[in-house]
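Onboarding guide, step 5: your first structure request.
Type a short instruction followed by the sequence, for example:

Predict the 3D structure of this protein.
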Amino acid sequence: MAQGIRKIGIVGAGQMGSDIAHVCALAGIPVVLNDIASQRMKDALATINGNMARQVSKKRIRSEEHTS
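The system replies with structure tokens like these:
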């Protein structure tokens, strides 16, 4: 019996981890992002929010996708 992805966990909030989190979030998959360095987490969230805001301004995604 096949099951869909219900949630994804990502260890490491560097460039690759934050990009994976971004793509999964846009796909509607709940994401848990973790890193040992709290500053890297803050940077990753800022990057993801900035990328999504840019995508909204270029009309690549709807604003609802950015805020969800």
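Each response can be followed by summary notes, for example: The radius of gyration is 13 Å.
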